[in-house]
Amino acid sequence: MKNRSAKRRLGGIFTAALFLALSIFFIGGCGGGSEDQVVIARAYYIGQGWEGLALYLKRYCVEFLPYNGESTDGVLFVSYGDAFTPSDGDIRSIRRAYEAGCFVVLVHATVDRVNEFLGHVGLPPHFDIEDGDGKRKLVEILAVYRQPRDDGGTDIFTWVTPEYTAPVKSENTSSDDPAEELPPPEDDFDLDEFNEARTRNFVQYIANEEKRLVDAERAKESAKAAVASATDDLTRIAKAQIITRDASKYKQHFMINYYIYACHSYNATDGVDYDWFVVQQRAMLNPEDNYGKDDAHGKHLAQIRGYMVYYDFENRLDDVKGVQLVNTSPASTSGSTSVTSGFSWSLGGAVGVSGSNPTANLSSSVTYSSSETVSIADCTVMNSSAPSEDKTKAKWRYEFPRPRCTEPGKWDFNFTGNFHDAVRLSRSNFEPFNQWLWKIPPNARDKIKGFNSKFKWQNGYSNGNQYIMKFKKHEVEHHDWVSSTETYTIPFIYAPLIAGNEVDFDAEGSHKKLKFGTARPWEAESDQEWCELSKYKGEADQTSGVYVTVKPNMTGADRWANITLRTADGKGECTVKVFQSKY
């Protein structure tokens, strides 16, 4: 019976994946030897007012058709521009496409419209994004995609591309020669080329199914580690949040990925039920196209520019009493070539996991263990997080040394120095990996809808030295050049307050124990007269002796019943499927 269910799920997954694969393909570029370009073979749209990156996206679509409300063989673009208000039919179509496994993409929208859209697809409407001045930004692309797994779970993928805003030029401390000061890189920046690159990043993302599957498997394995137990009950996670944020600025390519999974402890040893969020933050940061170095020539001193001075990551919850930052990693370090990000954590009591399917698995204990080593040569790691009830920030700075300039030798009376290259990770690809754990008490569950994730970077430039007759005319000068700060609010998908495992029976009438967990008084009901419970309500500690009894199945067909479990306070509810075979 379970194998048949798995086959049905696999068939649906294969069909959705096949449609998606057929909707995206590669075409050759013009001229011999050019690289293949990825395009979207078929796209549908709902709405009006195509602006911003939406105009670039349309160029990558071979077919761009009004949505008929039924098709699932392409990407669905949604625009709420020009004061467009979706009808009830539009909302049903958007939800249908999302649940069928299509990429659903909102384009060029305000934060309020983003949250409206998230509500339409059934995701938490608590999104926000701000620049360094606290001003809300438009969102150029927000894509959501749900990928069912063969174990009955679901992975939720989200892609975010904010509108472009120029970085801030830093104040120079001083300069002996104002002519040596660098103009902001905006003076040498092609916005059209940049928008093409950001659009191409997204199209490649939706086309690269293999990478998404790798990301999903990574999240799945992390989640399995997070809820590994001594029994076989907890062998799957119903939902993982995998979020990609394109934080690129002009010639610098920055991608930040978040892997988030949640669990809820029932009947904890202190008698309080908690929510637990394990968050992994993995960044791919590459400023190399903005990096340059000129040796001294004529009257011009050597100059080096576009290297990174530091990257900052700050992730925080609202200050609510009882919320704790339990673990953070990596720890601070200096002078190391690598750093290991990892910690272990154990939790007793029954546990529920985040998922759209309420029949989340339960267990008697939870153990989380994760460890990964990252190269940090010539980088200082500063972990300024403080696990306690008073501070809920998970915060890191990755700082690099300034470039070194050559110095005169013993017999160099007149000398102009040149710079060595900046350290490699400050000018090329750098992939930091942070992870942490939040513990949220019951009084904070309704108040904390997600967390704020701030990413800031600062790059610099330096002017070289000069000696005349052994006297130093110009010292090496290091300056901050430009910086950027963005704060992104990431909604939480909470684990259920009550959860139970599905129950299967053969055609003969029998009874089985109903495995479910909650830390609150509960109620239950069945929607079929042939499926009964030994108890229909109880206290939080009265969940272990409840049985499901089914009558013999004489119908000649398989049949199902739904058992609805609710917390007595009305804040938690789940449905447990009961299956009875005809055999």
Share of residues in strands: 35-45%
Number of helices: 8
CATH superfamily of the largest domain: Leukocidin/porin MspA
CATH topology grouping of the largest domain: Leukocidin-like
Total count of domains? 3
Rg is: 28 Å
CATH class of the largest domain: Mainly Beta
Low-confidence stretches: 1-23, 25-35, 226-238, 347-366
Instruction: Give the name of the CATH architecture of the largest domain.
Output: Distorted Sandwich
Notes on the structure:
The chain has about 575 residues and is of the alpha+beta class. The chain folds into three domains: about 1-25 and about 35-165 and about 190-205, no CATH class; about 260-495, Leukocidin-like (Distorted Sandwich); about 500-580, Immunoglobulin-like, CATH 2.60.40. It is elongated. The N and C termini lie close together (about 10 Å). The model is unreliable at about 1-25, about 25-35, about 225-240 and about 345-365 (pLDDT under 50).
Q: What's the topology here?
A:
Layout lengths: L1 H21 L1 E4 L9 E12 L4 H7 L1 E6 L8 E6 L7 H12 L4 E6 L1 H11 L6 E4 L7 E10 L5 E9 L5 E2 L21 H17 L1 H18 L12 E8 L6 E14 L7 E13 L5 E3 L8 E14 L7 E6 L8 E11 L1 E4 L11 E11 L4 E4 L9 E7 L15 E2 L7 H4 L5 E8 L1 H4 L4 E14 L2 E3 L2 E4 L2 E15 L6 E3 L2 E3 L4 E4 L2 E3 L3 E5 L4 E3 L3 E2 L8 E4 L8 E9 L5 E8 L3
Parallel strand pairs: 2-3, 2-4, 4-5, 8-10, 28-36
Antiparallel strand pairs: 1-2, 5-7, 6-26, 7-8, 9-26, 10-11, 11-12, 11-17, 12-22, 13-14, 14-20, 14-23, 15-22, 16-18, 19-20, 21-24, 23-26, 24-25, 27-30, 29-34, 31-33, 31-35, 32-34, 35-36
